[in-house]
Amino acid sequence: MFRHPAAKRFMVALSLGIVFGFLCLYLVGRQQPEIASLTHPIAWSILTDRILIGMVIAFAGAFTVHPILGFSYRPWLRGSCLGAVVSLPIATGAMSGPSTGPMSPWVVFVATVVSGMIYGAIIDLVATRVGGEGVDLVR
Question: Rounded to whole angstroms, how far apart are CA atoms 104 and 82?
Answer without folding.
Answer: 25
